[in-house]
Design goal:
14 helices; eight-stranded mixed sheet; alpha/beta; three-stranded mixed sheet; Rossmann fold
Length: 391
């Protein structure tokens, strides 16, 4: 196996070799892309048969041609697939096999038809992954990889880590000819846990250090424009400055931006509640307002919610009487009561999705009121939402 002084030479050698030995598959030419190859389906079958795939429920897979077989096989196995859009400009496409007819899984796994069968998610809305599959141009048996040269796979993984996602194994499917002896790497490069080819599985026993977040110092200014999510994250990091405004500013004096930032995005206030007519006590159910997206904890019509749902509580400082029936973890209630924000609050962690990852949102824990008869509400009371101040 050859070694190379730089990644560019490694890419060129792999592209040329796949072409010259007629291993490359459509689309042609293989150059300047993650190259498709003959035997890609065999490599995908190896991946799904590997013990590392056992128990996987959600998987992030790159949108390139050779990994189409991974996406298809994962869907057939009942695994939800998350496919990034180019440069994350449209976030991710969630492909849930429970929502896709069996005879349409092949189409859904393709780049050209995925949007027809999936739904778009902002990167902040992504649940935690169990496994990441990335495309590669060249790899080494020690887990080094290089892609097309833009660094998008590295940045995508770093974005998830920046948002509080835990580290998960990263694997790839390549042709045997794409496995080379060596090439230089950068500190922020992804490292592979396993490499699957049509003929073998390479287990990386000592993978390198995984990114813990975005290496902001290494990002070129144009990257913030090429990948809009980076610009969003950068603005999130800087828009509120370094001052802990929620500790020094009264609710009535907060700017609109500060007020909105105080919401932790848990979705608990959007659950239907029952009030005891004798005691006035309020209890929460696990039934969400019909406007709440139960997978993202976002209102599907935030601007027009009070017109569609007349009894929707539009919380502002004049609605202080509602604070007492907000969950004890609610940022607005805690500031009103003079209490600190929970340690998992996005303003404390600096990551917009930390509420989900800490397990304090209603994501995947509730159902929509569209699916429940009003008479059933009394049977759907929950005890995992507390109204008692924990001052």
């Amino acid at each position: 196996m050859p070694s190379f002084l730089n990644k560019s030479d490694a890419r060129t050698w792999v592209w040329d070799t796949l072409r010259d030995q007629k291993i490359a598959a459509f689309p042609f030419p293989p150059h300047h892309r993650i190259p498709n190859f003959r035997g890609a389906a065999d490599a995908a079958r190896r991946l799904l048969a590997d013990p590392l795939f056992e128990g996987v429920r959600r998987i992030k897979v790159n949108p390139d041609a050779p990994q189409r077989h991974v996406r298809k096989a994962a869907l057939e196995a009942g695994v939800v697939v998350y496919m990034p859009s180019p440069r994350l400009k449209s976030g991710f496409i969630e492909l849930d096999p429970a929502r896709i007819p069996q005879d349409k899984l092949t189409k859904a796994a393709s780049m050209s038809h995925a949007a027809d069968w999936g739904r778009e998610l902002h990167v902040w809305e992504l649940p935690e992954m169990d496994l990441v599959v990335t495309g590669c141009v060249a790899v080494t048996a020690t887990g080094r990889r290089c892609g097309k040269g833009h660094g998008f796979s590295d940045i995508e993984y770093a974005v998830l880590r920046e948002l509080g996602h835990p580290p998960v194994p990263v694997v790839t499917t390549v042709h045997d000819l794409q496995v080379v002896h060596g090439f230089p790497t950068d500190p922020h490069d992804l490292t592979l846990r396993r490499i699957f080819t049509p003929t073998q599985t390479l287990d990386v026993t000592e993978p390198g250090t995984e990114p813990v977040g975005i290496d902001w110092a290494a990002l070129a200014p144009e990257s913030l424009e090429e990948m809009p999510v980076l610009g969003e994250l950068a603005r999130w990091r800087t828009r509120l400055g370094t001052t802990r405004f929620w500790e020094t500013t009264q609710l009535e004096d907060m700017s609109r931006e500060q007020w909105e930032a105080l919401c932790d995005g848990c979705g608990r206030c959007c659950l239907l509640k029952l009030r005891d007519s004798d005691t006035g006590e309020v209890a929460y159910t696990d039934v969400a307002c019909k406007l709440l997206d139960t997978g993202t904890c976002r209102c599907s019509d935030y601007a027009g919610r009070s017109e569609i749902v007349p009894d929707c509580v539009v919380l502002d400082v004049s609605g202080w009487q509602y604070f007492s029936i907000m969950p004890s973890t609610c940022g607005y209630r805690r500031v009103w009561e003079g209490l600190p924000l929970p340690p998992w609050h996005p303003l404390e962690t600096g990551t917009p999705s930390s509420t989900h990852h800490a397990g304090f949102s209603v994501r995947f824990r509730v159902i929509s009121e569209r699916d429940v008869h009003e008479d059933e509400l009394v049977d759907r009371l929950v005890d995992w939402i507390s109204l008692d101040s924990d001052g």
